[in-house]
C-alpha cells in the first residue's frame, strides 16, 4: 500500500470516529498490529469503529416500579377495548418518574399505543397484544413519515414522538392482524395479483398526492388527507432518544414493522419479525444515528432490514443521513432483500456495518442490496459487510441505480467505500446485479474472499468503473469483474 493510501485510510477512520465523539487524536496512534495483508489491516481498522459505535450507544434505564394494565381496567377478553386502560397505565408510570407498564398473560385487544418518556412497555411471556384493523382506532392523525415523506397521518400501532428513554420488551406477541381482508388490500397493485381489486381503497389515491405535495414543498402540517389509504407502520419512535425494542415477536403488520425515524441510540435485539403482507419490511431505521440491530429473525414480505433517509426533496429538505449502524448475528429468511440500503435514501447513509448474518430461503430475492436512482440521489459511503453466509437466494449482491423512476432526475446516486468480505453463497440464480449509469458508473466497491457456489449465472454488470477484488470465485473458478 502506498503512503497516500495509508493516509487516506487513516483519515476515513479518524473522521468517522470523530463524528461519534469516540476517538481523540492521540487515540489514533493505538491500533491493532498489522496482519500480513495490508488490505486486511485497513478492513480491521474500520471494524474497530463498529465496536466503538456499539459502545457509544446510550442505554435505557428505568426505575424499579411496575404498573399492570389490569389495575387500570384492562381485561383479556374478546371484544373488550383496552386502549384507554393501557394509556392510563402509561400516563401513571410516566407521572411517577418512569418504570415498567406490564401487559400480563392473555390476549388483549387495543388500538394505538403512545409511549411516554421513561416507560418500558413489557409483555409477559404468554401475552398477545392484538391490534384493531379499523382505522378509526388510529385517529387523530399524528406527525409521521410514510415511505420517506412526512405528513399528518394515521398513528402507528405503537408510537412515540420526541420521547426519551423508552422500551418495548418481553417475550410476548404483537399481532397486527394484517390480512387479505384487513390493511393489506390498501396496497392496490399488490392486491391485483392476489384477489379482486377494489379501487376505492387503493393507496395510490393518497400516495401520489402526498409525493406531489412534498415535491412542491407544501408544509407538513398541510399534508392532511380526508381520504387516506396509507397503512401505518407497526412501531415508530419518531424523534426519540434512547430506544430499546427487545424480545417481542411482531406478526402481520399493516406496513413496515419497526421504523425508528430521526432517532438516536436505538437498540433492536432478539426480535422476531414475521409478516408476509405487502411492504412488510422488518426493520427500517430512517435518518437515525447510532443503531444496533442484533440477534433478530426476519421472515418478511419485503426487505428484512432497509436503511433509509427520506424520499427525494423531502429527504433533501431534512438532510439527515442514517448513520453509525451495526447489524450483527441476524437471520434473514424470506424477503425482497437481506441487508438493504434505499430506496428512500436521499439524505444519505454512512458508517454502516453488517456482520455474522445468515440468509437463506427460496423466497429470498436478494442478499446485499442497494436500490436508488437519479431522483433519489444520496451519498452511500463507508459500508462494511463481512462474515455473511447465504444459503439460497435469487441475486446475491445488487446495486441498482435504476430502481423505480430510474435515470429521470438530476441527483446522481453515489456509492463510495463499499467493502464486502468473507461472503459465501451456496445457491443463487445470479451472483450480481450491478447497474450503474453511463454518466455515473458504480465505483468504490471492494470484494474480498467472496465465493458463489452452485450459481447459475454471473448476472448483470452495467457501467462499472472498477471493483477492487481479491479471491472472488464463481462455482469454484476465479473470476475478474
Automatic annotation (TrEMBL):
GO terms under biological process: carbohydrate metabolic process
Keywords per UniProt: Glycosidase, Hydrolase
InterPro entries assigned: GH28_Enzymes, Glyco_hydro_28, PbH1, Pectin_lyas_fold, Pectin_lyase_fold/virulence
Presence of keyword Protein biosynthesis: no
SMART domains for this protein: PbH1 (SM00710)
Classification via PROSITE patterns: POLYGALACTURONASE, PROKAR_LIPOPROTEIN
Pfam families (alphabetical): Glyco_hydro_28
GO molecular function term, any single one: polygalacturonase activity
Family stated for the protein in its record: Belongs to the glycosyl hydrolase 28 family.
Name assigned to this protein: Glycoside hydrolase family 28 domain-containing protein
Amino acid at each position: 500500500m502506498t503512503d497516500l493510501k495509508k493516509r487516506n485510510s487513516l483519515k476515513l477512520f479518524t473522521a468517522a470516529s470523530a463524528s461519534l465523539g469516540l476517538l481523540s487524536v492521540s487515540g489514533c496512534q493505538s491500533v491493532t498490529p498489522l496482519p500480513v495483508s495490508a488490505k486486511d489491516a485497513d478492513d480491521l481498522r474500520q471494524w474497530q469503529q463498529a465496536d466503538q459505535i456499539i459502545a457509544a450507544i446510550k442505554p435505557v434505564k428505568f426505575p424499579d416500579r411496575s404498573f399492570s394494565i389490569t389495575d387500570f381496567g384492562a381485561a383479556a377478553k374478546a371484544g373488550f377495548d383496552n386502549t384507554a386502560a393501557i394509556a392510563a397505565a402509561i400516563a401513571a408510570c410516566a407521572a411517577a418518574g418512569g418504570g415498567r407498564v406490564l401487559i400480563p398473560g392473555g390476549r388483549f385487544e387495543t388500538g394505538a399505543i403512545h409511549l411516554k418518556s421513561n416507560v418500558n412497555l413489557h409483555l409477559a411471556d404468554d401475552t398477545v397484544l392484538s391490534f384493531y384493523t379499523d382505522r378509526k382506532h388510529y385517529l387523530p392523525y399524528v406527525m409521521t413519515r410514510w415511505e420517506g415523506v412526512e405528513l399528518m397521518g394515521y398513528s402507528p400501532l405503537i408510537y412515540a414522538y420526541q420521547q426519551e428513554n423508552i422500551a418495548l420488551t418481553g417475550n410476548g406477541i404483537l399481532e397486527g392482524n394484517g390480512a387479505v381482508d384487513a390493511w393489506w388490500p390498501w396496497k392496490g397493485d399488490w392486491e391485483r395479483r392476489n384477489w379482486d381489486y377494489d379501487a376505492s381503497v387503493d393507496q395510490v389515491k393518497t400516495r401520489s398526492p402526498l409525493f406531489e405535495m412534498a415535491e412542491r414543498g407544501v408544509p407538513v402540517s398541510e399534508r392532511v388527507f380526508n381520504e387516506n389509504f396509507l397503512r401505518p407502520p407497526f412501531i415508530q419512535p419518531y424523534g426519540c432518544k434512547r430506544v430499546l425494542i427487545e424480545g417481542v415477536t411482531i406478526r402481520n403488520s399493516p406496513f413496515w414493522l419497526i421504523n425508528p425515524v430521526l432517532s438516536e441510540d436505538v437498540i433492536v435485539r432478539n426480535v422476531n419479525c414475521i409478516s408476509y403482507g405487502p411492504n412488510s419490511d422488518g426493520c427500517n431505521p430512517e435518518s437515525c444515528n447510532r443503531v444496533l440491530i442484533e440477534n433478530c429473525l426476519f421472515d418478511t414480505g419485503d426487505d428484512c432490514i432497509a436503511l433509509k433517509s427520506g424520499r427525494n426533496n423531502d429527504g433533501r429538505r431534512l438532510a439527515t443521513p442514517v448513520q453509525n449502524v451495526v447489524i450483527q448475528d441476524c437471520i434473514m429468511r424470506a424477503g425482497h432483500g437481506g441487508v438493504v440500503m434505499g430506496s428512500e435514501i436521499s439524505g444519505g447513509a454512512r458508517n454502516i456495518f453488517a456482520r455474522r448474518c445468515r440468509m437463506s430461503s427460496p423466497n429470498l430475492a436478494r442478499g446485499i442490496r442497494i436500490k436508488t436512482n437519479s431522483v433519489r440521489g444520496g451519498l452511500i459511503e463507508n459500508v462494511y459487510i463481512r462474515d455473511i453466509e447465504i444459503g439460497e437466494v435469487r441475486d446475491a449482491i445488487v446495486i441498482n441505480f435504476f430502481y423505480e423512476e430510474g435515470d429521470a432526475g438530476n441527483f446522481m446516486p453515489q456509492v463510495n467505500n463499499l467493502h464486502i468480505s468473507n461472503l459465501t453463497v451456496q445457491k443463487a440464480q445470479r451472483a450480481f446485479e450491478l447497474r450503474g449509469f453511463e454518466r455515473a458508473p458504480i465505483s468504490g466497491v471492494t470484494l474480498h474472499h467472496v465465493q458463489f457456489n452452485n450459481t447459475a449465472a454471473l448476472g448483470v454488470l452495467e457501467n462499472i468503473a472498477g471493483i477492487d477484488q481479491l479471491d472472488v470465485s464463481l462455482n469454484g473458478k476465479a473470476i475478474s469483474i
